[in-house]
Amino acid sequence: MSVDLSQFIPSFLEESFEGLALMESGLLDLKRGDNETIHSIFRAAHSIKGGAGTFGFDNVTEFTHLVETLLDEMRDGRREVTSKDTEILLDAVDCMRLLIEAARDNQDYDHDKVAKTSSRLSETLGDEQSTDSENESNSNIEKKDACGYNIKFIPEHSLAKTGNDPIFLFSALAELGELTICANTEELPALMDIDAQELYLSWQLTLITDVEEAEVIEIFEWVEDECLLTLEPITNTSDDEFTQNLSEGVNSIISEPSVQPQLPSKAANQISLASTKVEHEPDAVIEEKSKAAKGKVKADLGSIRVGVDKVDSLINLVGELVITQSMLSELGNDFDMTKVERLTNGLEQLLQNTKELQESVMRIRMLPISFAFNRFPRLVHDLAIKTGKTMELVINGEQTELDKTVMEQIGDPLVHLVRNAADHGIESKEIRLANGKPEKGTISLDAYHQGGNIVIEIKDDGAGINRTSVLDKAIDKGLIDANATLTDSQVYDLLFEPGFSTAAEVTDISGRGVGMDVVKRNIQALGGRIQVESTLGKGSTFKVNLPLTLAILDGQLVKVGTETYIIPLISIVESLQIDNNLINRVSGDMVLYRLRDDNVPVLPIYQLFNLETECTEIDKALLVVVEADGQKVGLMVDDLLAQQQVVIKSLNDNYQQVAGISGATILGDGSVAMILDIPGMINMALEQAQRAQRVKTDGNSSVAAELCL
Amino acid sequence: MTKVLVVDDSNSIRDMVSFTLKSAGYQTVEAKDGQDGLSKAKINNFDLVISDVNMPNMDGISLCTELRKLASFKFTPILMLTTESSSEMKIRGKSAGATGWLVKPFNPEKLLATIKRVVK
User: Which InterPro entries would you find in this protein's record (chain B) (predicted)?
Assistant: First the structure.
């Protein structure tokens, strides 16, 4: 009987990572005497250890054993929960994660770190030796040439009350060799006095076998405290001795016939087969396991755990869709005009079904943002220790749902922003107190939905961004002109310039100036944007706006000539009818539109994409003001059409990358519409302008360059 | 058919035990902790109970104590899955009425061989 264990490994791994997360958050919350938390941490460690042993991850078992022992002492109150121990345990959790990940990916791990943490754990434990080996040494095997055993088995009367039944023990024994059983009925009371729940018999057994004594004793393992058990090896099996043994039970009723049927030889064969298999099994299992683990890496990345309720609702909706479909096709069989109303109803039903189905399918990809947030308590905890500042993390809206793909890619940028907040934002204790602020700094993470987007705010109540030092730095680095006048938001945007860092000292937490530009790039790659608000002395807020999903986009359909384009709603600032008085032609083709305080360059889409349109006059057209990279431009379009959700189809997969276009979609009438890539279009416009300049060297080049800064 | 109640809070272990038993021809019912196990035991009869010790809501030892109070579980074999083979653990199990214990880690073959000591 062989069972392939590898099929349970993915679920073990998943469980383990959940367990580790639970341990980590538990340890971070751990307060003295908080028994429930210690219990749950212990349980998580315990489960990981048990599973790891079963599934063959021995190094995990070994390491977790130390963790478990320490936790056990805390749980029993034998050890005070000190912050030092908590730190060690947190490190240990990291090591366990390392080990499990290494086991999953079948890769090597940081042996140094594990060894170090392991020795710290042992030190903390005072190098106590576990008493586990006690049993083995007790039953020390001195078996030599024994070819069988005489076993005297006198159970306590209450044996049956723990669910043990001698007959099963005997059948297990019989599988080890040839068994002869004599029951001793001496103790059997008179029928009147018998308590049906008690056991009055004892047995004399003779087992002819070549297995070791320990194996025989093991069968009685569960009853050894409830019986008198003596085991005498038979050194040579002369028939005399054998019969002598039998005759010892003079007074006993020979119950052999009644027991014998319980020992089918078939079962004995099966077991002996199984036991030979056991010898070979471990290697094979481990081999298979490592293979499986290798294959699993990819599979894990691509899998989603979906609640049963979500799947049920899908099945339900598909059911309804099928009903609607059959209703419609029946209607189509012999359609006449009298049935138009039923047809419209049916189609409406279909619309409703499709919409609900779409929403449900989208919901499957949605996960609560706590998946991305749950690593931050630990991060902030570690940062506080590293920087010597006191700070706490407040998380709000962790149940806000977000597309899985977006979630995976937003993790790292968020880590960077939180690190920045801890490192640059929050001031040291002394400075905070001197400024009349509470000693403890607060970093808060908020997530909420706004329209079709999710907004994540990383807020700190620290020093805020010092405008002057940012400007000085930017001038120093040659990013801006010494006498440029910039608005606050333009100044903050400088933080995202490559190679910009304001920390006076570069720390190992952040401040190498690699990062903020990457953060911004990553967020933009997800179709999102980041904004900064800051008040000197009060703190800063980084606001990340992300689309809920990458598969569907809220778009504004616009008409240019005969074409329909889609502008992502997230990048639209406003749409307006052009007021002739606000048009400002600076040079040649360049047109600026005065939008309140801003001069917005106008990009006629028809020119950009070389389209034929009747609407070439700017004053007849509509202007859609969009923003990307902090730069506003006005897209000149013929007409605004509907706003709708569109499913994004990749141009790369179906054709090739086209400048200024981020993807395509299929509209309700079956036609294909391009989705505009706003940052890409701005770059295109910039290039076109530069090309135009080169042609017309007498043009006002400085204006054009500044326009597209 | 021999019916087994498998109680463990870890999905992977529970699945493994249950799968092993099923493939050997046993019928199984799974429960995710002691509480769940107890309520399933109250509406079903079982020939064997295999339970983890450390579980949320109700641990294996309490489950064992509770089961022994039920008339239909008075003599039912109850095996505890434990990671430690310490004698303290065994005494605790025994005094709660456990029949025996299976020390983790165990492989499917060992599991099947050991439960033969208490059920058909």
Answer: Bact_response_regulator, CheY-like_superfamily, Sig_transdc_resp-reg_receiver
Of residues B56, B77, B99, nearest to A40 (C-beta):
B56
In a domain, B40, yes or no: yes
Q: What is the CA radius of gyration of chain A?
A: 38
User: Is the Cβ of B62 closer than 8 Å to some Cβ of chain A?
Assistant: no
Residue B120 lies in a domain: no
**B80: nearest CA in chain A?**
A222
Between A343-352, A663-672, B72-81, the lowest mean confidence (pLDDT) is in: A663-672
Sign of the torsion angle spanned by Cα atoms A38, A39, A40, A41: positive
Pick the residue from chain A with its C-alpha nearest to B120: A168
Q: How far apart are CA A648 and CA A651, in angstroms?
A: 9
Q: Does domain A5-130 have CATH number 2.40.37.10?
A: no
CB < 8 Å from A in window 71-90 of B: 74-78, 81, 83-87, 90
CA dist., res. B15 & res. A46, Å (int): 17
A552 neighbors A675 (Cβ within 8 angstroms): no
How is residue B110 written in tokens? 């060992």
Q: Above 80 in pLDDT, residue A184? A: yes
On whether the A369-547 domain is CATH 3.90.550.10, my answer is no
Confidence of residue A451 (pLDDT cuts 50, 70, 90): low
pLDDT number for residue A299: 35
Candidates A50, A275, A282; nearest CB to B13: A50
A393 vs A150: CA distance, rounded Å: 69
Q: CB-based contacts of A337: which residues, under 8 Å, 6+ apart?
A: none
- Which tokens sit at A589? 């083709």
Phi and psi torsions of B81, nearest 5°: -95, 115
Q: Among residues B52, B88, B46, which one has the least CA distance to residue B67? A: B46
Question: What's B16's domain CATH number?
Answer: 3.40.50.2300
Is the ipTM beyond the 0.90 threshold? no
pLDDT tens digits, one per residue of A331-370: 888 888 888 888 999 899 998 888 888 888 877 878 888 8
Enter the tokens of residue A79.
Answer: 């050890």
Q: Does the residue B91 lie in any domain? A: yes
From the centroid of its chain, how far is CA A138? 46
Q: What is the pTM of this model?
A: 0.57
Number of structural domains chain B divides into: 1
* A9 has a chain B CB within 8 A of its CB: yes
Which residue in B5, B16, B68 has the most chain A C-beta atoms within 10 A of its own C-beta, making it the best mutation to test that interface? B16
Superfamily for domain range A552-707: CheA-289, Domain 4 (2.40.50.180)
| A173 φ/ψ sector (left φ>0, alpha ψ -120 to 50, else beta) | alpha
Mutation to test the A interface, candidates B52, B117, B118, B119, most A Cβ within 10 Å:
B117
d(CA B80, CA B60): 7
Question: Which helix (H) or strand (E) covers residue A151, if one does?
Answer: strand A148-155
As given in the structure block, the two tokens for residue A207 are: 């087992």
The structural domains of chain A, with segments of one domain joined by +, span 5-130, 142-263, 308-367, 369-547, 552-707
Look at the domain A142-263 and name its fold. Answer: Alpha-Beta Plaits (3.30.70)
Confidence of residue A104 (pLDDT cuts 50, 70, 90): confident
Q: If you ran DSSP here, which 8-state letter would residue A425 be given? A: I
What distance in Å separates residue B99's CA from the closest CA in chain A? 5
Domain span including residue B7: 3-115
Using CB atoms, which residue from A3, A15, A131 is nearest to B11?
A: A15
A interface test, pick of B84, B91, B114 with most A CB neighbours within 10 Å: B84
Nearest to A525 by CA among A350, A630, A677, A650: A677
Give CA–CA dist B115/B6, Å, rounded. 13
Residue B56 and residue B58: Cα distance in Å, rounded?
Answer: 6
C-alpha A275/C-alpha A271 separation (Å) is 6
